[in-house]
Structures are given as C-alpha cells and as structure tokens.
C-alpha cells in the first residue's frame, strides 16, 4: 500500500507538470554541447554554435553565438550572456552584412546603439525593443554621401529604405 501512495503522488506531480527553468512561452536552442541560448524567433532547420562558457546548461559570459539555417551560417551575436540571454554591449552581424553595435537587456535591444547597413547607411540612436523588434526614439541617419537626417523612427530599417530612395 505504501508503494501505491508513492505512485499516486508521482502521478499527481507529473499531471501538474515538471517545473522548468525556462519561462513559459520562451523558446531556447541548444548547441552541440547542450548549452542553451534564448531563441526569440525559432525557424525550421536552425542550429547554433556557442564559443563561450556554459553554466548550469546556459550560455554564460562573453562569447559568440553563430546561427545556422540548413547548415549555412547567418547572424552572429558577440557579447555577454546571462543565463543564455544577451545582456550588456553586443555586436550583431547579420547574414546580409548589416551590423548593430549597442546594448541589450534580457535579450532585447535597449539603450544607445549604431546600426550600419552593408552599403554604409548609418543610424545612431537610442533603441528599445517592442513587440515588433527594435525601434528608436530620436536618432540620426547618415547617408553614405554624408547627408544627415534627425528624428524619431519607429521602423528604422524601413526608414533607411525610404532615405535611400530620397537621397539617390
């Protein structure tokens, strides 16, 4: 009878769910060594490499994450991670050659940063991550020609494309 009581307790625990270190609704991806990195936008056939330390199963401290899709390298994030999430200064190089250098808090862009496109358009401003990704409230666009535009841009990448058309 004692074993039956233990069995019922175990079934009850399993029915409630096993507590997880991952917050509900968050996605994570592990490298080949089992080190977890926060994955804000999971894609099919995606994998990563992480060259920093792993602590309690999470990427921790300084290092670089390289994202791969179908085995092809894409975006790289170089900076400091806390429990698998970017925190502090980081450099992000996108597959198309664009680059973002700025601060992150809890894996979201937050604070001063510079976004430079592959064709040398530059946007410098204060960034904040909303539901649609990074936006900026007050910043400066600089065209490769040196022309400057200042303002507030919710979608700075769309704004880059508009400025490209205008300054051609």
Q: Runs with pLDDT <50, length 5+?
A: 1-23
Please report the number of helical segments.
2
What's the domain count?
2
Which series of helices and strands comes N to C?
HEEEEEEEEEEEEH
The total of beta strands comes to 12
Characterize the overall form. Answer: elongated
* Arithmetic mean pLDDT: 80
Beta-strand proportion: over 45%
What does the radius of gyration come to? 21 Å
Structural class: alpha+beta
- The helix content, as a percent range, equals 10-25%
Distance between the termini: 83 Å
Report on the biggest sheet: 10 strands, antiparallel
Characteristics:
SH3 type barrels; elongated; alpha+beta; 2 domains; two-stranded antiparallel sheet; 15% helix; single chain; 168 residues; 12 strands
Give an overview of the whole structure:
With 168 residues, this protein is of the alpha+beta class. The chain folds into two domains: 27-95, no CATH class; 108-168, SH3 type barrels (Roll), CATH 2.30.30. The chain is built from two helices and twelve strands, in the order H-E-E-E-E-E-E-E-E-E-E-E-E-H. The strands form two sheets. Strands 3, 4, 5, 6, 7, 8, 9, 10, 11 and 12 form a ten-stranded antiparallel sheet that branches. Strand 9 (108-116) and strand 10 (122-130) form a beta hairpin. The protein is elongated, with a radius of gyration of 21 Å. The relative contact order is 0.08. Residues 1-23 have low confidence and may be disordered.
């Amino acid at each position: 009878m004692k074993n039956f009581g233990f069995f019922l307790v175990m079934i009850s625990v399993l029915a409630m769910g096993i507590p997880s270190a991952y917050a509900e609704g968050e996605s994570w991806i592990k490298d080949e060594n089992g080190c977890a990195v926060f994955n804000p936008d999971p894609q099919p056939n995606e994998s990563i490499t992480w060259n920093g330390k792993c602590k309690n199963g999470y990427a921790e401290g300084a290092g670089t994450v390289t994202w791969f899709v179908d085995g092809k390298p894409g975006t790289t994030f170089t900076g400091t991670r806390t429990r698998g999430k970017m925190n502090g200064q980081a450099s992000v190089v996108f597959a198309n050659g664009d680059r973002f250098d700025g601060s992150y808090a809890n894996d979201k862009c937050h604070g001063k940063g510079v976004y430079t496109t592959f064709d040398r358009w530059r946007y410098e401003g204060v960034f904040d991550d909303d539901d649609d990704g990074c936006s900026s409230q007050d910043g400066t666009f600089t065209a490769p020609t040196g022309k400057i535009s200042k303002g507030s841009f919710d979608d700075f990448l769309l704004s880059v494309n508009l400025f490209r058309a205008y300054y051609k």
